[in-house]
Design goal:
mainly alpha, 13 helices, 0% strand, globular
Length: 308
């Protein structure tokens, strides 16, 4: 019989607290890292880097770095042939489209609008889960969908002075991101998140390389500082963000992770307001609160989180 002394119980409690604290810090680091991505992208555009060029180099360099890290840590896992093809297709189609729509939308509308609209993706994921009959319809789901819809309408309508194409691109990015998450959640069974995202990024790299070659977008006529932003997007917003997210998620769980990830759009909004003077008006703040509310309501039940 195992005897639990007060000292043993206290030690176990300390371990649990330390795990939760570490997980919380890791997810927050991931959220901030992801939140800085549109900021760095704006600076890259100012240095005359094209959207296609930026995304190709982001995924190419990130794939190489992630493969090396997984190899060094012994986490490099080769899935079955069918799963490899599925993950490559997921990156080459869904993630390719999502990243293209998202980064292109940043060339038309302010960062805060794009960040808020994209962050409505949990509601689209929930709607997709309902249509696929993965979840049963509940009041929680209804509340989440209503809050997200109101939030997106308020945020989008507040941006009528901007090009409508930018709003549509941001909404399209949120929808395609949801499709990517729904499809990816089925491919993760028996495979670590880091290993999965590696194959997804390789698929995206292939698609962007082919796309850039066909369209002739590979110009490489940049200002010298462009490499700074490309490297930051690769290291901070891709490798660090993805790695800390998965490590933190294992420690705090999906519900807590989704709540902590609210810091992602807040980071984009705050930094953009400081650096670019892109400020939200009252209607946009209200819309943003509705979207965050939808995420929190979604987090109170079963949560589907991104795989990268």
């Amino acid at each position: 019989m195992k005897i639990y002394s007060p000292e043993n119980l206290a030690a176990q409690g300390d371990v649990a607290v330390n795990r939760e604290l570490l997980g919380t810090v890791l997810v927050l680091i991931s959220a901030v890292s992801f939140g800085l991505m549109p900021i760095f992208a704006r600076y890259a555009y100012a240095a005359e880097v094209g959207v296609g060029e930026l995304l190709l180099l982001r995924f190419l360099f990130a794939s190489i770095i992630m493969a090396i890290l997984l190899g060094l840590t012994g986490k490099f896992i080769r899935p079955s042939g069918r799963k490899v093809l599925f993950l490559l297709g997921l990156g080459g189609i869904a993630y390719f489209l999502q990243a293209t729509l998202y980064f292109t939308s940043l060339t038309y509308v302010p960062v805060p609008l794009v960040a808020l609209i994209l962050y409505s993706y949990p509601a689209f994921v929930t709607a997709g889960s309902l249509s696929l009959r993965w979840e049963k319809f509940t009041r929680r789901i209804l509340a989440s969908l209503i809050l997200a819809l109101i939030g997106v309408v308020l945020v989008a309508n507040a941006g009528v002075s901007f090009k409508a194409i930018g709003i549509l691109l941001a909404v399209g990015a949120a929808i395609t991101y949801s499709i990517y998450i729904l499809a990816g959640s089925r491919a993760l069974k028996g495979l670590s998140g880091e290993a999965a995202i590696l194959y997804v990024m390789i698929g995206a790299t292939i698609s962007f390389a082919l796309s850039d070659l066909v369209t002739g977008n590979l110009q490489f006529a940049w200002k010298s500082q462009a490499w700074t932003w490309i490297i930051l997007i690769t290291l901070v917003c891709t490798c660090v963000a993805a790695t800390t997210f998965f490590q933190g998620l294992r420690l705090v769980g999906p519900a807590r992770g989704s709540i902590l990830s609210v810091l992602e759009p807040l980071t984009s909004i705050i930094v953009a307001s400081i650096l670019f003077n892109e400020l939200l008006n009252l209607q946009q703040w209200i819309g943003g609160l509705f979207i965050v509310g939808a995420v929190l309501v979604t987090a109170s039940g079963k949560v589907v989180l991104p795989v990268g």
